[in-house]
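Exercise 7. Given the components listed, write out the predicted structure of the assembled complex. Treat all entries as one system.
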Amino acid sequence: MFKQSKLVSAFALAGMALFGAQAAHAQVVKIDGSSTVYPITEAVAEDFQKAKKNAIKVTVGISGTGGGFKKFCRGEIDISNASRPITEKEMAACKEAGIQYIEMPVAFDALTVVINPKNAFLKQATVAEMKKLWEPSAQGTVTKWNQVNPAWPDAPVKLFGAGADSGTFEYFTEAMVGKAKSSRGDYTASEDDNVLVQGVSRDVNAIGYFGYAYYAENTSKLKALAIVNPKTGKAVEPSAANVENGTYAPLSRPIFIYVKADSLNKPEIKEFLEFYMKNGAKLTKEVKYVPLPASAYTGNLEHMNKKKLGTVFGGHNEIGITIEELMKREAKM
Amino acid sequence: MKPLTTEEIRAVIAAGKLRDNLFKATGVFCLALALIVIVALVADMVIKGSDRFTLDFFLNFASRRATQAGILSAWVGSLLVMLVTAMAAVPLGVAAGLYLEEYAKRNWLTNLIEINITNLAAVPSIVYGLLALGIFVYQFGLGQSILSAGLTLALLILPIIIVATREAIRAIPAMIREGSMAVGATRWQTCRYHIVPYAMPGILTGVIIGLARAIGETAPIITIGALTFIAFLPPAPLSTLGDGSTAGLFDWVMAPFTVMPIQIFNWTSRPDPAFEVNAAAAGFVLMAMVLSMNAVAIFLRYKMRKNIKW
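Answer.
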């Protein structure tokens, strides 16, 4: 015991000498939630803290969109990162706890369908083809490429996709199969997208999907598949430009932060959000996500100042909604 | 039975020796396999992470830029959590082990307790995390703090320390106890001056093995809510804070934190492959922390054993 108490004081002394000047009881902005939104919020937090010379501190955790909303509706955090709109259940939980919030879209996430660069026959795919390949009834029966489209070769299909707990899985199934979380189960699933990158890059017959950032960082190992936009009938490749102008549909989606209304009474939260909206576009690009049009960021600030409470989604996800439409809509608690 | 000829005896001996050597070769092969795996792992991390072994890596906070990202909040967090874990688990574990060996009567209740302690060592760590989330974080209101994390890991390694303490005490010959009591020492005096000092090397080994396990734990720490991005340190005792006030001696235990395994996991799952270098470097640092803890245990055990003269 004696040895330990010595250790404690030694560490304390070392700590004081090293970090004494840095430690401070500053105001803290607490953020938690989705791992998809995390890179953007982290970049903002990093730069904000530097800009404020550590007078305001920001903490960001990753507990998933659902986990984040749980903490948010318990009043434990100021801001919740969310890769999908708040659900009815979560709205009810927040209401019960008396938590009011402002919904702010901060970037686009383009789900990207990727194939091996050596794959010569796949140039584009339609939503119907994707459905044929991924729907639950395909399990065990659709195992060759020519079963999806007769023009494709008689070769085995190797599938890679997101794990069932992720927002990516939810959105992909809803957009492609037509019903959220409805997917075949016989594919290589991983919550770690780097595992999927490795898988697809090593197999000529592989196809997989994940967030655009993982494709953007690995363009030498992967090829992105153009998806036919059901409205225009044209095949569109995922790219920043195509996401921004709304043609890359239905696989692009907005991602959000939810801000607790009470927290806006604290000046540090307001300052943080102002910084977020001012630098959001630049930082979003830097972490390989697609920024929203500038009007969306200024719109978010307006909503903050006017206290536009609630969500514009009414508890349901929507496929293929444009950002302009989203900003104009009436919000409801 | 006919007596064996010298030739036959030689043959039997030769066959025996051959088997001996075969077994030896198998043993060496198994050992080499285990060693090669660990050497390959460490070498892989060192080679991949070599670009990051700079002072900055240890003194920088997390960042979106791989080359500027460091592990300051992670290693400080890991060390502080270990400190709380040791402070909580060692006294409790040693006292419990001592009671079970020296004081408790042998009956069905002690047997039941013993079985349960052994079983506790096999409970998955995530279960401790869920328990701690309910009890420490919400019931006791300790929040997502270093204290919560330290106590959670203390629960996790308590069975290891209890079992190690009991094994160490059991290895002490009964005559030591009898001799002590024969000259009139009470049970407490016997424990205080004989049992605990003699069992210390074994207890220490258990403590370090427990802590080495705890430092690599991720699941329970994530469950209770450790952060991923945190670019400040807990307040050092008696340091001056931003608003001019002075931090209390134990303010740091309530501070938010992150730990090494979480930082490593975050880096491996990022899109930018440059972070793999950071993950490898941080992995090596964590491994070095565990190895140096083990080295300290071996050294202390060796030193203390030298002082025991039965």
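Discussion: The mean pLDDT of chain B is 90. Residues 198 and 307 of chain B are 9 Å apart (CA to CA).
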